[in-house]
Every structure is written in C-alpha cells, then in structure tokens.
Amino acid sequence: MSAGGNNGGTVGMGGAADDGADVWIGLELAEAAAGAKVGPVPVPEIMAGGRRLRRRRRTMVGTLALASAVVLAGGAMTGLRSAPAQGNSAQMVVPAAAPTTTATATPSAPAAKDPLTPTRVVLAQGTVGGKEWKVWAALWPLAPKEQAFRQAQAVAQERRAVDPEVPEPTEAFVRQYWQPHDDVVNVYFTVDGVRLGHDSEFTTRAPSAAAPAGGESFTAVTLGHRGKGDTVAPLDVAVMTIAPEVGKIVVTWTDGTTTEPEPVAVADSPIRWIAVPRAEGKSAQSWQFYDRNGAKLPGDGPDFLK
Predict the structure, then answer these.
(1) Could you say which of 3, 67, 284, 306 is the most buried, measured as most Cβ atoms within 10 Å of its Cβ?
(2) Helices and strands (H and E) in the chain: how many
(3) What's the pTM value of the predicted model, to 2 decimals?
(4) pLDDT digits over 155-178, tens only?
C-alpha cells in the first residue's frame, strides 16, 4: 500500500499488500495439508480449500479497494496496517489528519484612472468680511497621449467658463508638449461657493513616475488680487507644491509671528500641497523648509506674500 503527497493524496495497491496476502495463503494451505488424511491424495478436498482461500483473498482485496475509494472520496490520507493482529483477520483503517487548506487572496489590479474625471480637494479655507473663501486643487490623472487633447479641452472648458481669456488648446500644441509622467492640476478660488477666474495650472509627477534627480522642493503661485481694480478676491493666497522629502514649512511674518501650514495630499499623488493666506496687515518675511528629520533645506524659500 502506498500513499501520495499532501495535496489530497492517492492510495493504490502495491506489491507489499500482495506479498502479505500470499504469505497468509501459504500458511493456510500448509495447515490444510497438515490436516489431510494419509492415503490417497484428497484432490477434491484440496481443490475445495483452494477455492475457499481464493474467495477469501478476493474478499480481502475488495475490502482494501473499498477503503481506498472511501479515503479518496473524503480527501484525506489513510494508513492501512500491513498485517492483521493475532486472532483477527480484519483490516484496520487508521484515518490521518485532514490536510489544512489556507485560502490565499489574489491581489486585485489597481482600478484604472479616468483622465477625464478630476479629484477635487480643498487646500485651505476661511472667512473674510463675512465671505467664505476656499482654494481648491483639481487633479486630472495622467492621460495617455491619445487622450491628452480631450483632457486639455476638458480642463480649458472649466477654466474658460469663468475666464474667457484662457486660451483654447490645439491638438498640435498638446501632442508636442504632452508629458508622459505628469498629472495636470488646476488650482482655483471660490467665494461663497462661486468659482472665480483666479486660477493656475500645474503639472506634477504621477504616482508611477520616478522622482526627478535634483528636482526643486517646491513650485508656487499666488492667487488673489490681480491689480488695484480687482476687488473680487477677498485676499491673497500663496499655493505651493511640496516634494515628498519636505517635512515642515515655517512662514515668518514681519511682526515676528510664524505659521506652519499643513501639507495636503491630493488623490494618490506623491506631491503634496500647501495654501497660505496672507495674514491681515502683514507680509511674509521668510519661508523656511525642513526635511523629515528636521534639518533645514538649502535656500531662503520663495518670495511670496512680501
């Protein structure tokens, strides 16, 4: 008798089982011969005894085959004793422990991003003169080259709805300057829920893109007053992208007070954002950037809100 591996197991009849059965048959034939009367050879008796032994052997083999079938149907391995105990010719079946099966979850592929559907996040908000203002970032995921023009049209349509001076993109321009590793981010202002024409467009590296060697820690723009005649925007807000290695930003104002803006994540982009409103009656004296270990990064920071 032989058993298979742990993957459910197979049980089959082998030479060991046949050899053991032959030994038992030989012993019983010897016993029958020893009990025969001396004289003429009792051919009928020996033949009858042989037929009984063959039937017994078939019964034994059939029992083993049935036990094997039951074991296979139950999915567990069994061990069969190679010889019966004294005074007992029955086969003993000893069930083994059932194999343990551990289900392994197959990781699902990340959902495809629609380059024509942006993710919108509020970067900063507040109230000035009884009006609620918010600065938003709308991240448009990296578009394949064949969809880049449609994406540029969608972004421009939103921008032109509040600022007709935004130029309409051309397919030739988009195909020439398409960036294969960048998301497109449109940052804009709302006051009491109404979008203003004060906005800016960025490109930031997509999550799948490697960090550029020697890249700057930030890029920035100021949203707000466009001139003395612009009274729509209630205040100026500096908006910046923050590289992953930046851990802290400190803005020092002219009166000695400081502000530490909290970086905001937009979708799954590795680039984070800060939006810093101008403190009332104050100007920014300095911007200082620190890495995640608290060490100062080189440079004096941007020249914004001064």
Answers:
(1) 284
(2) 4, 15
(3) 0.61
(4) 999 999 999 999 999 999 999 999
